[in-house]
Amino acid sequence: MAVCLTLSMFTYCSVWTNGAGRLPRHNNISWRGNSALKDGSLQSVDLVGGYYDAGDNIKFGFPGAFTITVLSWSVIEYSAKYAAMGELDHVKELIKWGTDYMLKTFNASAPSIDLVWGQVGTGGIPGDTTPNDHYCWERPEDMDYERAAYSCGACSDLAAEMAAALAAASIVFKDNRAYSLKLVDGATVLFAFARDRRGRYVKAIPDAETYYNSTGYWDEFIWGAAWMYFATGNSTYLKLATTEGIAKHAGASGGWKFYGVFDWDNKLTGAQVVLTRFFKMMSPGFPYENVLNQYKNETELIMCSYLPQYKVFNQTAGGMMEFNYGAPQPLQYVAANAFLAALYADYLSATSAPVWPCGPNFLPKKVLRDFARSQINYILGDNPAKMSYVVGYRKRYPIRVHHRGASIPRGRTSRGCTTGYKYRDTKSPNPNLLVGAMVAGPDNRDRFADIRYNYNFTEPTIAGNACLVAALVALSGGDDKGVDPNTIFSAVPAFFPNSPPPPAPWRP
Q1: 3-state secondary structure (DSSP) of residue 333
Q2: Percent of residues in the chain assigned helix, strand, coil, to nearest 5
């Protein structure tokens, strides 16, 4: 789907130009059209629609579901900001494009399921010359090779993330009761499947392991359970999200390399942040308070760890925090954790907490927003390369984005697996501008190569761009415009009984 979001500083179209299927008539991206209209047909299932993941034509279910969860979370927290910018309907349309597709990937009308369709398209292995979505360079509209679809019968991480996405989206669409209930029903089925059939999805879909390997499913259990609780008010989910054994398995006490990093694989930090919001604002008491208090304490430490003075994460000379420890494609991690920092600062405001503890010190919430702003400013051009890593913003930005549709002129055929290589390998700018797309980013020395075939620099992803949208919304409008304090808890029942009515007037 192609819908542009005007977020504070620029028009944001991004890789929402990565919409698959039959695009709506109001699609305003002239160089995109209908594509992949036979997805799933080889398996006799309708898998048309959804989003391509990045510069390729694969639909990866795992990061795709995370994309919808993050976008939904940002709308739940900041719907007033979206509305003020005139973009609330647009972002809800983007979310619905994703949830409509997800509802196709399993039997959403059944009380229980035994499989989920987790991927359409094939990445293959390096050096593989079999026609697939990585080896071939074709516009989505021109794909002329067979596209496989992959299912899994034991994929707790994928199914729990999908449940989180549908549950969070059900809150976004609470004004559409029928659709909201449909999303809740689907999320319920998915989460039960995730709990009953344990396993990592890449064991069933090994093609995904090279690109989106999942390191475990315990974090998705907490993350999914939290969103299921917020969507339904069913305390069973809250009990699960606050079970000490699950928290331990998820690594909630820290001590592992990527602890504190929020991304498409690691949901623990996001779960701890949103459950800290619940703990601070709802005070649920026994039997939830012990683990929730642990999540709060860990969240406070994680927020401290983001700050450069504590040297938990390395910072490049140009000021970018290396949340992925110097590995390629850093900006999706920068955007995700900048969003959490800005969001948590707003949680502090909502609970009238002007400071939070960092060891023996107490730091003002403004420090968190300033940190988040510094990281987003780096993405937008405040960096040694003086380049905006968001296409179309400022005068200097990447012009050779690793993206099949953007790199091939409209009306020029790219049928034939290698026909498009001449467009991939040329030094000319992309003929189609992917406005608003955040690319993968520079290396750990702040160096950037605007080379189309080097995806480690120039490829955008929908998960990374969803996090950028969330961070931009969180930081827009000034520091005094915080989160919506109530919507996320709209389905959560009161924890204490209502006070009894006053006694009748005394009469002698």
Answers
A1: helix
A2: 45, 5, 50
For residue 490, being part of any structural domain is answered with no
Q: What's the domain range around 109?
A: 5-481
Q: How far apart are CA 11 and CA 490, in angstroms?
A: 31
In the chain, the N- to C-terminal Cα span, in Å, equals: 74
CB contact at 8 A, 4 and 12: yes
Catalytic residue numbers read: 450, 459
Burial annotation 140-165 (CB, 10 A radius, 16+ → b, else e): bbbbebebbbbbbebbbbbbbbbbbb
C-alpha distances (whole Å) from 80 to each of 120, 343, 483 are 35, 15, 9
Residue 431 sits in a domain of what CATH number? Answer: 1.50.10.10
* DSSP-assigned states of every residue in 39-84: TTGGGTS----SB--SSSS-EEHHHHHHHHHHHHHHHHHHHHHHHH
What per-residue confidence (pLDDT) applies to 496?
65
Indicate whether 14 pLDDT > 50: no
Q: For residue 150, give the 3-state DSSP assignment.
A: strand
Total number of domains constituting the chain: 1
For the cut 90, the answer to whether the pLDDT of residue 307 exceeds it is yes
CB atoms within 10 A of CB 104: 17
Contact between 217 and 267 (Cβ < 8 Å): no
On whether residue 161 sits in a domain, the answer given is: yes
One-letter amino acid identity for 415? Answer: R
Where do we find the tokens 């003020």?
84
Best CA proximity match to 136, nearest among 508, 425, 414, 489:
414
Strands 149-152, 116-120: pairing is antiparallel
In sign, the C-alpha dihedral spanning 194, 254, 299, 379 is negative
Question: Which contiguous run of DSSP H or E holds residue 193?
Answer: helix 177-196
d(CA 101, CA 119): 12
What are phi and psi for residue 192, nearest 5 degrees?
A: -65, -40
Cis before 287 (ω within 30): yes
Going 386 to 390 to 394 to 396, the CA torsion angle's sign is positive
Report in angstroms the alpha-carbon separations of 254 from 251, 336, 356: 6, 19, 19
How many of the other CB atoms lie within 10 Å of CB of 318? 14
Tell me which amino acid residue 178 is.
A
Please tell me the distance from the alpha carbon of residue 98 to that of residue 49, in angstroms, as a whole number. 8
Give pLDDT tens digits for 163-216.
999 999 999 999 999 999 999 999 999 999 999 999 999 999 999 999 999 999
Quick: pLDDT tens for 403-422.
999 999 988 878 899 999 99
**Mean pLDDT, residues 348-368:** 95
CA 466 to chain centre: 5
Q: Would you say residue 409 lies in a domain?
A: yes
In a domain, 294, yes or no: yes
CA–centroid distance for 507 within its chain: 63
Bridge partners of 117, per DSSP, are 151
